[in-house]
Amino acid sequence: QSPQVRPPKACTKQAHQTGQSSNPQGKAPTLNALLALDCPASLDHVVDVLATVLGDWRKNPRAATGVLGQLAKNRRGDLASTMIRGMALNTVETNIFHYGSALSASARSSQWQLVLGLLSRMPDAKVAPNQITYNAAISACEKGGQWQFALGLLSSMPDAKLIPDK
């Protein structure tokens, strides 16, 4: 029996109606457009929003980290995960900071399934998971009541040449 998947907290009707979001100036156009997307946002819609910045992000991938960080503050793991996929499809380099922000967004929105999906996609993106990404994934699984997954991740850390926190 598979666990029931709930929509992200930021995707609830109340969050959309009240317009709750954390959005400092500087990242407003892209972030606002992403936050305005329906939940869950499709890959095509996210890529459409990102179309105006993808060229800049190809030259400076660090610029995407700020948007991902804001998605984490807004508890929009669904958007962060989809944004990572959109970046990869459009040949924007992704790195440990991008994945760390997306993992944080997913963990903050209690989406342990997204966290595990992101963690599993990292090697394909040639991004090596580190202690921070594993800890975020373990924490998300623990908060989601998925202790079997949390223990599995913890036991796999030595194979990844990582030492678990004590």
Helical fraction equals 55-70%
Shape descriptor reads: globular
Helical element count? 10
- In whole angstroms, how far apart are the ends? 33 Å
Largest sheet: none
Gyration radius, rounded: 16 Å
Strand content: under 5%
Mean pLDDT across residues = 83
Query: Element order, helices and strands?
Result: HHHHHHHHHH
Ranges where pLDDT stays below 50 over 5 or more residues in a row are 1-10, 12-26
What is the structural class?
mainly alpha
Number of strand segments: 0
Write the layout of secondary structure elements.
Elements: H1 13-18, H2 28-35, H3 43-50, H4 54-59, H5 62-73, H6 77-89, H7 96-108, H8 112-121, H9 131-143, H10 147-156
Helix pairs in contact: 3-6, 5-7, 6-7, 7-8, 7-9, 8-9, 9-10
Characteristics:
60% helix; single chain; 10 helices; mainly alpha; 0% strand; disordered N terminus; 166 residues
What does it look like?
The chain is 60% helix and 0% strand. It is mainly α and 166 residues long. The chain starts with 12 loop residues before the first helix and ends in a 10-residue tail after the last helix.
In short:
By secondary structure, the protein is mainly alpha-helical. It has helices spanning 13-18, 28-35, 43-50, 54-59, 62-73, 77-89, 96-108, 112-121, 131-143, 147-156.
